[in-house]
Amino acid sequence: MLKAENLVKRFEEKTALDGLNTEIRRECIYGLVGPNGSGKSTLMRLMCGVYRPDGGRITLEGEDIFENIAAKDRILYLSDDLYFPPKSTVEDLANFYRGLYSSFSMETYRKLCGCFPLEVKKPLSTFSKGMRRQAALLAALCCHADYLLLDEAFDGLDPVIRLMVKKLIAEEIAERGTTVVISSHNLRELEDLCDQIGLLSAGRLLFEKDLDALKLGFCRVQAAYDHPVDWEATGLMILDKKERGKLVSLLVRGTAEATLAALEAQRPLFAEALPMTLEEVFIGEMEAVGYDYSNILS
What is the pTM of this model? Predict the structure, then answer.
């Protein structure tokens, strides 16, 4: 388990993380979301031991990570800002990681070379942005680290490669019990992938919940009325309301069953529950804490 306790990180006058607490359990996919500058990359660099905390602790199964060689051998961090040595190739990158991680597998490397459409002997400097990202992911997946930290993992990938990478990540978890942390500012990328979601803003974790539990607390409904409705009298906790003629669409904190019962009491022409997106759930959670959600959705 990765655990942060009252974690603080400062860069001169700026406080990047301010008393952050979180626990990331084994064998899950944890989605770390938040706007640019919220502290996502800083947290990941603390998790892998690149940065030393200025306050609090960040531990791997009870042991501090910074300057802990054994812990770092179990954690792989893939930055959103990729760097490759001049004239290096995919083969050179694989050999570099092979020297760093004791669990690196050449068998996996050969297998993944057949999955990613890359020329392994061609200089990475000639690759497109998406191809460089593929090369980095290929090398990272060969390391079979217990904890895989991916910063903007899907940035620059086309839909086919993105789907393949998600499948490979799922295989790592199923076969080796890998724990994956993925940061993104795009909720749509994480909706069908993560078990747990944490929302980071201004160096603080606004909330952290299992994805299934998160969706259970809200519902989206639509109804039509041929008469005015006193919405306050319904007793519903309405977070978002859109009206168009007789049709009204509501985002409500509560269960679909209770919400539909309240709507039926107002004699609608019809009323129904609609599937919810992760984006809509986040709107509800962020409004509940007084946060301007328009800064995070894209």
Answer: 0.81
* pLDDT at site 215: 67
Q: Which CATH class is domain 2-211?
A: alpha beta
245: left (phi over 0), alpha (psi -120 to 50) or beta: left
3-state secondary structure of 246: coil
- The domain spans of the chain are 2-211, 216-289
Contact 35, 295 (CB under 8 A): yes
Tell the burial category of 123 from Cβ atoms under 10 Å away from its Cβ (0-12, 13-18, 19+). Answer: middle
Q: Kindly tell me if the per-residue pLDDT of 278 is higher than 90.
A: no
CATH 1.10.10 assigned to 216-289:
no
Winning range, highest mean pLDDT, from 37-41, 70-74, 273-277: 70-74
What is d(CA 79, CA 91) in angstroms, rounded to the nearest whole number?
Answer: 19
CB-count burial class (<10 Å; 0-12, 13-18, 19+) for 150: buried
Write out the two tokens for 100: 């760093």
Residue 15's φ and ψ, nearest 5 degrees, are -95, 110
Task: Say how many C-beta atoms besides its own lie within 10 A of residue 207's C-beta.
Answer: 16
pLDDT at 297: 44
Residue 68 and residue 139 in contact, taking contact as beta carbons nearer than 8 Å: no
CB 3 within 8 A of CB 179: no
Cα–Cα distances in Å, from 111 out to 142, 254, 271? 9, 47, 52
Beta bridge partners of 78: 150
